[in-house]
Amino acid sequence: MQQFGSTQEYVASEQLMASVNVAIALKKPLLIKGEPGTGKTMLAQAVAKSLGKKLIIWNIKSTTKAQDGLYMYDTIQRLYDGQFGEEGVDDISRYIKLGKLGEAFDSDEQVILLIDEIDKADLEFPNDLLWELDQMEFYIHETKRTVKAKQRPIVIITSNAEKELPDAFLRRCIFHYIDFPDEVLMEEIVKTHHPDVEANLLKNAMDVFYRIRSLKDIRKKPSTSELIDWINALQIGGISAEKIKSELPFVGVIVKKDEDLEGLKQRLN
Amino acid sequence: MFTRFFYTCRAKGLRIALTEWLALQEALEKGLAGSSLTEFYYLARMILVKSETDFDKFDMAFEEVFKGVQSENEISKNMLRWLDKSELIDMVDEEDRFRMNEQDGIFTDLDKDEVEAKFKERLRDQDSEHNGGSFWIGSMGKTSFGNAGGNMGGIRVGGQTGYQSAFQVIGARKYRDFRDDRVLENRQFQLALRKLRQFSTKLDIPKTELDINGTVDKTCNNGGCLQIVMERPRKNAVKLLLLMDSGGTMIPYSSLLNDLFQSVNKSNHYKDVKVYYFHNCIYSKLYKTPECENGEWIDTEWMFRNLDSDYKVIIVGDAAMAPEELYSTTGNYRGPNGGLSGYEWLQLMKRHYKKIVWLNPKMAPSHAPWREAETAVKAMFPMYKLTVDGLNQAMMKLISNK
Q1: Out of A26, A163, A177, closest to residue B52 by CB
Q2: Could you tell me the end-to-end alpha-carbon distance of chain B, in angstroms, rounded to an integer?
Q3: Is residue A6 part of a domain?
Q4: Which domain range does residue A77 map to?
Q5: DSSP assignment string, B349-363
Q6: Min CA distance, B47 vs chain A (Å)?
Q7: For residue B20, which residues of chain A lie inside 8 Å, CB to CB?
Q8: Which of A178, A200, A234 is the last residue of a domain?
Q9: What is the pLDDT of residues A220-267, one digit of tens each?
Q10: Residues near B26 by Cβ (< 8 Å), separated by ≥ 6?
Q11: Residue A109 lies in a domain
């Protein structure tokens, strides 16, 4: 059996790797939760790369319905065609377009399916997918065709915990909560993105970063991806390591709320 | 396997279903936990627990069941890398190993304590990789500890993973802050309030949305000539009335109440939201501002007349009135009583509105007859503590049909 491991671009904790491998072995969807910016979405890309499989991403929006992932019946197109008496209007299958989930089922090779930010959708959304994720098949009423997974896809689902997910859905998943990385792991993560970062600059930037995170009254804690952006900005700006702590250059990259910036400035003075 | 663990988890409040338990059994059957307690801990957690808010409960259950189990000693990452020689195992056959043991007769007769003591001593002193030797911890050797070694007994310093030992994780209790019975924050308030919605197309509003599927159907049946079908939009039909106690005993909770107010204010998915304040108990006037100034008020009767019984009512207060504040017709020392006692005003509320819940930031955890007013109010309205759990339950109560 293929095993998932850290890649050059993605540093995974051992527990995370174990979760991925257990989910693959048990053929269950893997549900990933964690603070924003801890690399939930990137995980799927890393898994796809590490296992050498194609990645299909289904981005969930507040208006997404479960049906969208299965298939769409392009009624409008059919209506147009019908008005002008086009040929083949009576062949409904011409107007059936598979959604992301359908695409994953219909693929000849095993794929990774990422259902990104499932909590953005309506509360009932996950329940509507129970049967499809369990049985890995669905039925197209219009053409009376059953789409069944040729190769069971590896399903990774991310959630920002904006909404509670239904119990029935959770019971079918393997769950992993991505902890905020500690300083050792963080250093490793930053170095995969910026391999040539100067040691002093990295250390000072991380000190500031963790100090801001530890402030009790901070409204929005900066995340990993923001730290990586900040270090990038510092490098491009050619800021010397000494100035980072005293002047907080480009601090807007990691602190985004006005109130937080004010509080930070007051502390500095 | 581990049925006791299953029931302990449930006793700690984890709602584990049989399907999840069977999934864990399947995982164990496939050998996904290796033979390590720590890997078992993570495996069980990822399958059984589906929210970081429950990690702490799981830790407690795990500790209770497996406390007596001998756990692995903490092995450094480096040492594990030296030891991970699984590819070499096949190169040594059983016979060779047996011979290795025979040559050194002393070591085959193992005293467990002695081995463990020696093991710990070497663990402390060793600083480099050793393979094939007879003293240090290493692979392919013949000491009584190490990996892929020849010794038939002793300690296997296991393998492929360098987990933090389960009990160290539990001891740290780093998920305690995630427990959702702690007092909640603004964002979580908003999320809980979102539960309160009742989509309806049966509202008394005009049909303004194009029903695409219906239109297509009708058009096709009509021989391709367009025939439009309209429908009513789906709207949240919930109307919310929030009444907040801003009496002296509520001052310690002012930031909590502020958060709740902000969240209700921000949630724009209700059909209507009204917020009023009262001081200790509801009487004939309700205040428009939390300062409860005389004059800045509306008549409670006006509210009954203008806000119909479909409004869902959330009353927030500590229900810690003095007996006369609740039962006397002159009990309101701050404003007019309106000829009725506070208790009677509350009864009027109950009679007028179909759905009322009471949120109490300092509710007694169980039946507390000595808190006279709280007990009386609790008998009248369903009361919940102002936490994530409590607010969620209250919202479910408001939305349910019972």
Answers
A1: A177
A2: 41
A3: no
A4: 14-178
A5: HHHH-SEEEEEETT-
A6: 5
A7: 171
A8: A178
A9: 788 888 888 898 888 888 888 888 888 888 888 888 877 778 878 777
A10: A26
A11: yes
Task: Please tell me whether residues A164 and A247 are part of one structural domain.
Answer: no
A148 and A205 share one domain? no
Task: Look up residue B348 and give its amino acid.
Answer: L
Chain A residues touching residue B51 (CB < 8 angstroms): 33, 170, 175
DSSP letters spanning A187-203: HHHHHHH-TT--HHHHH
Q: What are the structure tokens assigned to B376, written together? A: 């009386």
Q: In chain A, what residues touch B224 (CB-CB under 8 Å)? A: 82-83, 85
Whether A8 is in a domain gets the answer: no
Of the residues A128, A163, A178, which one is the last residue of a structural domain?
A178
Residue A85 lies in a domain: yes
Residues A63 and A142 in one domain: yes
Q: Helix A14-26 vs helix B18-29: angle between axes, to the nearest 10 degrees?
A: 100
pLDDT tens, B214-229? 888 888 888 777 777 8
Overall domain count for chain A? 2
Query: In A, residues 112-131, which contact B (CB 8 Å cutoff)?
Result: 123
Which residues of chain B make contact with A18, given a CB cutoff of 8 A?
39, 42-43, 46, 161
Q: What is the ipTM of this complex?
A: 0.74
Structure-block tokens of residue B100: 């290795």
CB–CB contact B42 A75 (8 Å): no
Within this chain, do residues A212 and A187 fall inside the same structural domain, yes or no?
yes
